[in-house]
Amino acid sequence: MSTHLAEWLRERRIAFSENAPIAPHLYFRIGGTVSMLVSPASAEQMAGVLAELASAPPGAGHEGPLPFVVIGGGSNIAFGDDPTRAAVVLAPAPSQVGARILGDGVLQVESGMRNQPFLAWCAANGAGGLEFLSGIPGTLGGAAAVNAGAFGRSMSDVLLGADIVDEAGAVRAVDASYFAFRYRDSRFKLGRQTVLALHLRFDPCEGKSIAKKSRENLEYRLKRHPSYRLASAGCFFKNPLLNGVKTSAGKIIEECGLKKTTCGDLAVAEEHANFLLNRGRGSFADLRRLEEKIRECVAARTGIVLEREVIYISPRGEKY
User: Fold this and answer.
1) Model-level pTM greater than 0.85?
2) How many CB atoms neighbour CB 42 within 10 A?
3) Is the pLDDT of residue 62 over 70?
4) Choosing a second label site near 246 at 20 to 30 A (CA), which of 50, 134, 299, 308?
């Protein structure tokens, strides 16, 4: 399958590399090599690549069709240390402006647009109500897939629908209910479907007010989180629900005395205990050991079972 795919990509002049390191494309900088790394130049090219991958016959290749994973900003994901048998498709950033107003209170944005440039566009176009995204790393598509949120709002509060590539490789439109949103989760988080463009609800607002709120939200996060220059995947565990109320996982981890805990080159951040930092050459094995150490200690001391928010990729290219 990889030989056929390589030929198909060459014919269409779509950039790719084989047996490529994946860590440089991830915020966490954790992962070995992947069978193929594909870099479409546009959303249209990405849709074509995904259709080709989805249409591979069951017997293609020595081990069957090549699994595939799409990543946007790479901010919430880690790969194993061993080679991963999968094609990784990098969602392209828009070559020009990736957002536009569709009508009263509705806009469309390409999934590969990153959150901070998008908020700058919102300020320039009077599209308010989306400032909660400020400081959340990654792309709009990734934010929708994991139902990202902050400051009391999430993507599920503003998403109206999307254009997607489904499991059969077909491009189609879906409404918000199709996402099956849950807290920091949707059917796209661990599934094989991919978001191409989002339709979002916004509140008409003065640009200066939008820019001010976005700046305040960003400054709030910068003061309380580790530097974005450090390798991390953001908040690692979901905030647990206790007595019907969301409770800070970082606070729980801190109260268990786990700040600065290390495993190899992985460490619990001093600034916020729900951030795990790769201090240089952290491995996936280090990460798993630190995760289990935190989970076991918290469970033993509080009875709370923390649930991981970050996505892992298995050697067979499966999300879990």
Assistant:
1) yes
2) 15
3) no
4) 134
